[in-house]
Inverse folding.
């Protein structure tokens, strides 16, 4: 298979290969990474596939080096990507802060595993706060996308490069160990930009031939309010992104008396749980944010006053944003554990039953 | 060709007697002489030279502490026909960025590293550097560097010269007219090494830091002579002739 796809074709692929393939199709010309379970197949696949696309692959000596290579590649105007799993993403946070500060576009994939510390190599969603609240030092935001299927992973990876270039901001794809290891058919679509992408000429580093030198820097010492102004500029950009980017999926929420809120792979389990719950006489629905930052508040607001069951593979991180989006006046229930716990439909339905029973008792 | 072309006509923030000023001028002169200003991309380090872009009329990227070799690896791989210059101090290159330094050299990346060794942390005002001499007083070694506790000064040229990756490695100094002349020659060889596509080159420059050494100008020149005893000058690796 060469670089250009003739027409949409379905292929059985592993998650860790899917986002690499999508990146290459979207014109990613630089990848640097460091092996870590459960996402090592990404670098392996890229090492094989990069040549077909005239892309550069570097196995970096460290996660820090990999993210800083992205800092350079992006400054040179190249579409670039790195991927890792939780402990590796922690190491990258220094570089991510610099990249966000310098407003350089790039795409980072986190195939989340159990933590804290070395944790384990099971899937997890415990890096939610790190992903959506900044992660490194300073006031900055990443655009965070949460696919739940490999098709979404493929499509969102392509879109991620457009968001990154359009907003000059790093984009994080928040997956998990299941998504990375999952094998399922994916329609390999041709890349078409979804946004009117701006030229990089005004800032890119390529040597100053025929123009004034460009400087990419994050140290803003003087005048004294320079950094304040830069931060205000960043916040204005984040506000603009908030206004423009809000992706969310809903399933049977219209008549739902209780709505499961979940993202990523957990939402997939939640969707099936909705159907089983309904067979059991519980009118359940599912709300699944695709953009975790910006959080799709507008979708949640419509369900104000309804009861929610928040399911996540962590001890209550995602639930905070769900509560915030509803200004804390809904009824919230929680089902979540860290460390390698996976939700199954039985547990979710059982929880829904418990909630319903409690209502009966109370009325 | 005038030296002002690459060097901006502006006052530098460096202290009187600081080695950076001299090295900046030499680099700017060479960039002009080789006529590579318009294809140069330089890395400004964390440290006193972070404001490099205020003095050089070239594209500059300011890198995190220690990470410049990785940043510039990527830029050179993406834009192989550009001239990529990495400017780093001792703390940056040989402490927080040792990993990046060693592996970038080991990959033989076709970039040029200018390494300012003044045996002290300048920007943070005088703490021990990886190259601080045994017995040297700094703000974190108030009784002098103890080798049984703080270890030995790191000899970067000797370390990197053991590897197969690098092409050209030399140590020079800037505490005399003769030394400055030699430094320019060494930098020219290193620049040429990259321009000829021959791979990784590094020039370590023993430089003065009178402010943090708490020395007057004359004694700071003498201190560099003392540094030369621990850090001997010379070419540690040169395989440029193996390329055709």
């Amino acid at each position: 298979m060469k670089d250009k796809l003739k027409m949409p074709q379905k292929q059985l692929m592993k998650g860790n290969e899917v986002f690499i393939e999508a990146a290459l199709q979207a014109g990613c010309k630089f990848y640097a990474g460091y092996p870590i379970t459960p996402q090592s197949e990404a670098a392996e696949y890229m090492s094989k596939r990069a040549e077909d696309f005239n892309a550069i692959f570097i196995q970096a000596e460290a996660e820090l080096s990999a993210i800083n290579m992205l800092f350079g590649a992006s400054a040179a105007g190249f579409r670039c990507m790195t991927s890792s799993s939780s402990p590796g993403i922690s190491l990258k946070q220094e570089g991510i802060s610099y990249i966000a500060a310098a407003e350089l576009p790039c795409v980072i994939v986190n195939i989340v595993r159990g933590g804290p510390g070395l944790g384990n190599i099971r899937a997890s969603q415990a890096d939610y706060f790190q992903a959506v609240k900044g992660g490194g030092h300073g006031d900055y935001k990443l655009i965070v996308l949460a696919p739940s299927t490999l098709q979404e992973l493929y499509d969102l990876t392509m879109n991620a490069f457009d968001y990154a270039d359009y907003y000059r901001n790093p984009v994080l794809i928040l997956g998990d160990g299941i998504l990375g290891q999952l094998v399922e058919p994916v329609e390999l679509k041709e890349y078409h930009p979804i946004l009117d992408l701006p030229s990089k000429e005004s800032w890119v580093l390529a040597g100053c031939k025929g123009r004034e030198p460009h400087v990419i820097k994050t140290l803003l010492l003087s005048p004294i309010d320079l950094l304040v102004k830069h931060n205000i500029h960043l916040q204005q950009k984040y506000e603009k992104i908030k206004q423009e980017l809000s992706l969310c999926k809903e399933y049977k929420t219209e008549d739902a008396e209780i709505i499961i809120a979940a993202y990523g792979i957990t939402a997939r389990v939640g969707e099936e749980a909705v159907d089983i719950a309904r067979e059991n006489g519980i009118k359940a629905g599912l709300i699944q944010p695709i953009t975790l930052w910006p959080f799709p508040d507008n979708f949640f607001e419509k369900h104000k006053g309804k009861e929610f069951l928040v399911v996540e593979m962590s001890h209550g991180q995602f639930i905070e944003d769900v509560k915030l989006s509803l200004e804390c006046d809904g009824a919230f229930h929680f089902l979540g554990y860290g460390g390698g716990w996976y939700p199954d439909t039985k547990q979710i339905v059982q929880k829904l039953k418990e909630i319903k029973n409690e209502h009966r008792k109370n009325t | 060709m005038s030296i002002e072309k690459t060097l901006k006509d502006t006052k530098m923030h460096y202290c009187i007697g600081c080695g950076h000023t001299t090295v900046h001028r030499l680099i700017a002169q060479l960039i002009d002489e080789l006529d590579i200003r318009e294809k140069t991309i330089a890395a400004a380090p964390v440290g006193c030279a972070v404001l490099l872009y205020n003095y050089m009329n070239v594209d500059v990227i300011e890198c995190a502490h220690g990470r410049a070799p990785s940043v510039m690896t990527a830029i050179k791989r993406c834009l192989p026909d550009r001239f990529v210059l990495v400017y780093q101090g001792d703390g940056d290159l040989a402490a927080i960025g040792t990993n990046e330094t060693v592996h970038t050299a080991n990959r033989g990346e076709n970039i040029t590293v200018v390494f300012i060794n003044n045996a002290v942390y300048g920007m943070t005002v005088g703490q021990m550097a990886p190259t601080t001499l045994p017995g040297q007083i700094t703000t974190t070694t108030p009784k002098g560097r103890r080798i049984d506790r703080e270890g030995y000064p790191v000899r970067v040229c000797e370390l990197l010269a053991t590897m197969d990756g690098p092409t050209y490695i030399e140590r020079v100094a800037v505490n005399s007219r003769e030394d400055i002349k030699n430094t320019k020659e060494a930098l020219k060889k290193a620049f040429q090494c990259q321009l000829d596509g021959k791979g990784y080159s590094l020039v370590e420059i023993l430089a003065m830091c009178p402010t943090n050494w708490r020395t007057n100008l004359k004694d700071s020149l003498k201190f560099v002579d003392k540094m030369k005893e621990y850090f001997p000058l010379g070419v540690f690796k040169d395989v440029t002739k193996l390329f055709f």
User: Anything to note?
Assistant: The CA atoms of residues 36 and 83 of chain B lie 7 Å apart. The radius of gyration of chain B is 17 Å.
